[in-house]
Amino acid sequence: MVLSCALCGKDKRQFKNYSFFMVPKEPDMRKKWQEFAKWTNVLDHYRLCEDHFSVEQIYKRYPRPLLKKNAVPQYVNVLLII
Ligand SMILES: [Zn+2]
Questions:
Q1: Separation of 48 CA from ligand 1 center, angstroms?
Q2: 56: containing domain
Q3: Rounded to the nearest whole angstrom, what is the distance from the C-alpha of residue 8 to the centroid of ligand 1?
Q4: How confident is the model over 55-75, as pLDDT tens digits?
Q5: If you measure from the C-alpha of residue 26 to the centroid of ligand 1, how many angstroms do you get, rounded to a whole number?
Q6: What total number of domains does the chain contain?
Q7: What is the predicted pLDDT for the residue at 80?
C-alpha cells in the first residue's frame, strides 16, 4: 500500500522529504483528528502529512520527526507549491 495523506492525498513517493503521521490511538485525540478531517471512519493506517500541522507541533529529530503529544491538525487548505 502506498503511504499517503488521508486528507490531501500527497504520497510518499512524490513527497519523499515529507513526514506522515499516523492517526493517534488514544480515543480523544483520534476523535479530534477525525473531526478535523471529517472522516466518516478512522482506520488505523490513516496518516496526515506535515502540511496539516504547525511547525511547533513537530519535533524534527532523528531518525524521523515526531508529533508532539496532543498535537492536533490545524490546516485543511494547503497550497501545493511545486
Ligand atoms: Zn496532507
A1: 5
A2: 1-82
A3: 4
A4: 999 988 788 899 998 999 999
A5: 21
A6: 1
A7: 58
